[in-house]
Design brief:
mainly alpha; about 45% helix
Length: about 140
């Protein structure tokens, strides 16, 4: 199906009230835990670095076994490309386009409205408490 990837049914404002040609049912499955395989030691260093970075990145929390298999294949293709003496710009563009589907770059994630945030520091004082303490201090009230 051409066009942008649709939102999940649960993410739509009024999923049951949609009308028109875009009304389609959603088939649901169960997400299963997936373990990332090890990188191939013979890969080009750039492909190895990209693989390691993807394993550490937050978007990989959502990867299923098929996503890891696709990423493995793409890193293999990138490695072959980088080691080749005859390089095609079209081949590199094709490889990079496939990486977009795995949401490797921040821009790709933003396009599908996925934002990764830094974990909150549990030892830090919440901003609301800090503001109240400063307000009390300004008024001369003890904490």
């Amino acid at each position: 199906m051409p066009g942008p990837v649709p939102n999940r049914e649960a993410d739509l404002a009024r999923p049951r009230e949609r009308k028109g040609a875009d009304q389609q049912s959603v088939t649901r499955g169960t997400a299963r835990p997936a373990k990332a395989p090890n990188a191939d030691r013979s890969w080009h260093p750039i492909a190895q670095r990209l693989w390691d970075a993807a394993k550490e990145s937050g978007q990989s929390d959502f990867y299923q076994a098929s996503d890891w298999a696709l990423l493995y294949s793409l890193c293999e293709d990138l490695s072959v490309y980088k080691k080749s003496t005859k390089r095609s710009g079209q081949m590199l563009q094709t490889i990079y386009s496939a990486f977009e589907r795995l949401l490797i770059a921040e821009g790709d994630r933003r396009r599908v409205r996925i934002e990764l945030h830094e974990p909150e520091d549990e030892t830090a004082t919440p901003a609301s408490v800090t503001v109240m303490n400063e307000y009390r201090a300004a008024l001369g009230i003890a904490n």
